[in-house]
Amino acid sequence: MSHPALLISTEELDSPVALALISALDQELSALYPEPDANFLELDAEEVASDSGAFLVAYLDGRPVACGAVRRISPDTAELKRMYVRPDVRGLGLARALLEELERGARALGMRRLVLETGERQPAAIALYRRAGFTPIERYGAYVASPLSLCMAKTL
Predict the structure, then answer these.
(1) CB of 58 closer than 8 Å to CB of 65
(2) pLDDT at residue 150 above 70?
(3) 3-state SS assignment for residue 145
(4) How many structural domains is the chain composed of?
(5) Rg for the chain (alpha carbons), in Å?
(6) Whole-angstrom Cα distance, residue 26 to residue 24?
(7) Cβ proximity of 115 and 151 under 8 Å
(8) Which of 13, 38, 84, 129 is a Cys-bridge partner for 33, taking CB atoms 3.0 to 4.6 Å apart?
(9) Where in the sequence is the domain holding 38, given as residue range(s)?
(10) What Cα–Cα distance (Å) separates residue 132 from each residue in 13, 35, 89, 95?
(11) Is residue 101 a part of any domain in this protein?
(12) CATH number of the structural domain spanning residue 69
């Protein structure tokens, strides 16, 4: 679904807009997953530099309301990170639009596969990814020993 006043643009990871959205995401995840070691919040600026990934912010009527990142993790695989939509604008198709833009960016980097980690307590996120063609895979990387993690992948 497209929204006439939706603009998705690249942002620096340390910009005030990005930091505010990431902070809101971290607060929500910490409330959903209060268990120690249940959250994997790391993402470095160099991982989303133009040659290896991107950090995108969606603006609705000029207001920053959603974000997401893609980072290269191998020569042909990228990982989705930090997907977030502010609660008051959920259900408008913003996550889908952001996801499509991140997929385009990954393809432009030559990526052939996208992977992601989400949590079992996030049914809306799981539904979004399934609708977008992601399927469950074995837990990978930092998530191998994380029982609350659900990992998914999609061929681009």
Answers:
(1) yes
(2) yes
(3) coil
(4) 1
(5) 15
(6) 6
(7) yes
(8) 38
(9) 6-112
(10) 25, 29, 20, 11
(11) yes
(12) 3.40.630.30
**Does 2 score more than 60 pLDDT?**
no
Identify the band that residue 42 occupies on the pLDDT scale cut at 50, 70 and 90: low
Cα angle: 116, vertex 18, 121; to 5 degrees: 40
Length of the chain, in residues: 156
3 is written with which tokens? 């929204």
- In the structure encoding, which two tokens stand for residue 39, read together? 């959250």
Maximal C-alpha separation, the chain: 43
Query: Between helices 94-108 and 123-131, what is the axis angle to 10°?
Result: 50
Residue 74, pLDDT score? 95
**What is the chain's percent helix, strand, coil content, to nearest 5?**
35, 35, 35
Place of tokens 């902070």: 23
What are the beta bridge partners of residue 64? Answer: 59
Locus of tokens 């990978």: 140
